[in-house]
Write a structure and sequence with these properties.
MeTrfase_7; SAM-dependent_MTases_sf; seven-stranded mixed sheet; about 425 residues; metal-binding; globular; alpha/beta; magnesium
C-alpha cells in the first residue's frame, strides 16, 4: 500500500520541479515560435467567437482591438491613413511641449526618468513613430532648458497600452531596435486606472478615444425611445439615440479623465487625437456618418437575403462616438483637474486630393480597425460580404463624398494636469 505522505511528496516534486521544465522546453517554444499571422488569427477567432440565440439579441456591444498579425486585413498593414491624419498634429504636439512642459523640473523630481504612455497603441508602426516623436520633442525641450548640462539626459520609458486581447506579440516583435527609450506593455482598458499614482509625465491617445467602452444599454430596450431599430449607429437616428450615445461617451470620458488625473504628475501633459464633429452638425453629414449608414444598409440587405434575422441588426450598435469641442470642454471643466492648453478641430486629410481615389484602401483600413466587432456579432461570412459590398456602395456615392472630405472632423486637445 502506498504511503499517502510519500505520494504527496512525490506529486509535490512533479509540480514544482518537472512541470516548470515541461513548460519551458515544450509548451513555451511552441507558443512563441508561432508566426505573428497565426497568433493574430487565433486572437481574432477568440475575440470574434460566435454568439447565438438570445445572447446575440441582448448583448451590449463592446469595443475590441483591431486585427492582429501581419496579414492582408491586419491593422499593422492597414493603418497608413491614421498615421497621415495624426501626423497633422505632430508639429502642434511639439510646440505645446516646448511651451508648456517643464521637463527639467519633472525629470529632476523623478530621478531623471521621463515616463510616456501611449493609450490605445494597437499593433501598427504608428505607435512607434508617435513615441519617437514625443521622446525627441521632450529631449529637445530639456536641451533648451539645460544647455550646459550635456553630461546627463533623462532616460525615457514608454508604456504601450491597449486591451488585453490586443496583439502585443506583433507589436513587440516589430519594436525598433534603435529606439531611444525603454519599452513595456500595459494591458487593460484606459477607462480604468493603469499606472501608479503620479507616475506618468506625458500621456497621449491617438485614434482610440472615440471607441466607447460599450454601446449604450438603452438601445437594446424595445420599450425605450432610444431603441435603435434598423440602424447600427446614431447616424441618421432620432435625438433619443444620439443622446444615449452622448451620455455613454460622457461617462467614459469622466472615467478616463479621473484615471489620468491620478496617474499623471502635476504639470504632466495629456494629448488626445480622435474623431470629432463641428457643433450641431449631424453625424450623417460627414464621411464617417456616410460610412456607417452604408454598413447598416448592407446588413439590412443581407438579412433580407436570408443570411440572418433582421433582429440581429436591431441588437447591434457600434460603440463609436465623435464629440464636438463644446461637449469636450464641458466634460473637462466638470472634471476640474486639467487645464485646456489647446483644443481644436482640424481637417484629417489635407493631403487627400479626392476621396474616391482611395475608397478601396479606406474600406481596408476600416476593416482592419473594426472587423472583430462585426464578426463577433454577425459571424465571418456576413462580415466579409458586408465589407466586399461596402466599396461599391461608397463609390456609388462619390459625388456626395467629394463634398465632405474637407470638413474639420479631427479632434485635437492638449491638457495639463493641474498643480
Amino acid at each position: 500500500m502506498v504511503d499517502p505522505n510519500s505520494l504527496q511528496l512525490y506529486m509535490s516534486r512533479i509540480i514544482t520541479q518537472v512541470l516548470p521544465h515541461y513548460v519551458d522546453f515544450y509548451i513555451r517554444p511552441r507558443l512563441f515560435h508561432r508566426s505573428t499571422d497565426e497568433i493574430g488569427e487565433s486572437l481574432m477567432d477568440h475575440q470574434a467567437h460566435q454568439i447565438s440565440g438570445e445572447d446575440k439579441l441582448n448583448m451590449v456591444i463592446n469595443a475590441l482591438p483591431p486585427n492582429g498579425g501581419t496579414g492582408i486585413y491586419s491593422y499593422s498593414k492597414n493603418s497608413y491613413f491614421q498615421k497621415q491624419s495624426s501626423s497633422v498634429e505632430d508639429g502642434k504636439v511639439e510646440e505645446e511641449i516646448q511651451k508648456k512642459m517643464d521637463v527639467k523640473r519633472l525629470a529632476s523630481a523623478s530621478n531623471m526618468i521621463i515616463r510616456v504612455a501611449d493609450l490605445g497603441c494597437a499593433t501598427g508602426p504608428n505607435t512607434f513613430s508617435n513615441a519617437q516623436n514625443v521622446v525627441e520633442a521632450i529631449r529637445h525641450k530639456y536641451q533648451k532648458q539645460c544647455p550646459k548640462d550635456t553630461s546627463k539626459f533623462p532616460e525615457f520609458h514608454v508604456l504601450f497600452n491597449d486591451l488585453p486581447s490586443n496583439d502585443f506579440n506583433t507589436l513587440f516583435t516589430s519594436l525598433p531596435q534603435d529606439r531611444s527609450y525603454f519599452a513595456s506593455g500595459v494591458p487593460g482598458s484606459f477607462y480604468n486606472r493603469l499606472f501608479p499614482q503620479s507616475y506618468i509625465h506625458f500621456a497621449y491617445s491617438t485614434y482610440a478615444l472615440h471607441f466607447l467602452s460599450k454601446s449604450p444599454e438603452e438601445l437594446q430596450d424595445r420599450a425605450s425611445p432610444a431603441w435603435n431599430k434598423g440602424r447600427i449607429h446614431y447616424t441618421s437616428a432620432p435625438k433619443e439615440v444620439v443622446d444615449a450615445y452622448a451620455m455613454q461617451f460622457g461617462k467614459d470620458t469622466e472615467k478616463f479623465l479621473d484615471a489620468r488625473a491620478a496617474e499623471l504628475v502635476p504639470g504632466g501633459i495629456l494629448v488626445m487625437v480622435m474623431q470629432g464633429v463641428p457643433h450641431r452638425m449631424p453625424y450623417s453629414h460627414i464621411t464617417n456618418g456616410m460610412l456607417y449608414d452604408c454598413m447598416g444598409s448592407i446588413l439590412i440587405d443581407l438579412s433580407k437575403e436570408g443570411l440572418f434575422d433582421e433582429s440581429q441588426v436591431d441588437s447591434f450598435n457600434l460603440p463609436f462616438y465623435a464629440p464636438s469641442l463644446e461637449e469636450m470642454t464641458k466634460l473637462i471643466e466638470v472634471n476640474g483637474r486639467f487645464s485646456i492648453e489647446r483644443m481644436e478641430l482640424t481637417n484629417p486629410a489635407p493631403w487627400l486630393k479626392s476621396p474616391t481615389q482611395v475608397v478601396p484602401e479606406w474600406v481596408m483600413h476600416v476593416r482592419a480597425a473594426m472587423e472583430a466587432i462585426f464578426t463577433r456579432h454577425f459571424g465571418k461570412e456576413v462580415t466579409h460580404e458586408m465589407f466586399q459590398r461596402l466599396t461599391k456602395q461608397l463609390l456609388d456615392k462619390r459625388d456626395l463624398l467629394e463634398t465632405k472630405y474637407r470638413d474639420k472632423t479631427q479632434f485635437f486637445a492638449v491638457l495639463k494636469r493641474n498643480e
